[in-house]
Amino acid sequence: MLISILLILLLPFLLAPIYDSIERKVKSLIQSRVGPRGFIRSLLQSWFDIAKLFSKELVITGYGILIITMLELFLIASTAILLQILILFNNLIVVKTLFIVFLSISTAFFITRSIALNNPFASIGVFREFHIVLSTESFFLPSLATVLFINASLPLKLMLLIIIALSCYVLSSRIPFDIAEAEPEIASGVNIELSGPLLGVAMYSLHIKRYVLSEVLSYVLLKLFNVHLELYTFFVITLLTFIIWITTSIISIILARTRVDIGPATMLKTMIILMILTLLIYMLTVK
């Protein structure tokens, strides 16, 4: 039993790069490109990329960058572990609270790392990321907390699900909300000063973050529709997480890029409208 729980806790760290590899292969097939050849190579390409980065020389512009980057990985890893515990033991209020706290702090450390780089391209990227986070997390975290702590009515559940689904997509840094990096435009933006092992840590953190966001949406889907969360349900959530990951990657191919000043503003207006509708539904359905 202990070994099973340990494997479940480690699952995001093993699967996240594999899911990213599959995403890259799916994108290459849709766009008629030649992706990684061979089944094993296609499945483990992101792991190979991370291992290659870790094999290079460690070059840092300051020890502050090293500490912040490692703390960012630690926080998103802690968030992933807390989410796994939350799925296994659904009624632990302390875990629910810590999960929301760690989820918000991990984003703050991503912004802190980018500011600490002291590079004009990184500064442009971090201000873009700040606008995205400001227009999304302010609505995402309260909606997630409502789902975790309150038994809402069905109309209210649907509105919260829409807000959470949109937020998970936006915060995963996929097109058109990858403007903090925007590699073809500003030379990798927030990651421009990172290389070798540090870049590998940053990439790995992003993979885990995308896994966590996909799993959050999977968990919310089952919880909102009153699926009883037992141990076997974890495997359903894992399968649903993979489906959501691939679905969001396909959506990112369909969507076009947006202007950096329009994307966050449009998302903010959308979230405000959705939140107003949510509050109206709550006032109409509350007894």
Automatic annotation (TrEMBL):
Cell membrane recorded as keyword: no
Primary location recorded for the protein, binned into one broad class: membrane
GO molecular function: NADH dehydrogenase (quinone) (non-electrogenic) activity
Known EC number: 1.6.5.9
Record-level GO cellular component terms: membrane
Topology in membrane: Multi-pass membrane protein
Top-level class of the enzyme under EC nomenclature: oxidoreductase
Localization of this protein: Membrane
Protein's UniProt keywords contain Signal: no
PROSITE patterns registered for this protein in UniProt: COMPLEX1_ND1_2
Transmembrane segments: 63-86, 93-112, 158-177, 231-255, 267-285
InterPro entries associated with the record: ComplexI_Subunit1, NADH_UbQ_OxRdtase_su1/FPO, NADH_UbQ_OxRdtase_su1_CS
Keywords: Membrane, Oxidoreductase, Transmembrane, Transmembrane helix
Record-linked PANTHER family: FORMATE HYDROGENLYASE SUBUNIT 4, FORMATE HYDROGENLYASE SUBUNIT 4-RELATED
Protein name: NADH-quinone oxidoreductase subunit H
Lineage summary: Archaea, Thermoproteota, Thermoprotei, Desulfurococcales, Desulfurococcaceae
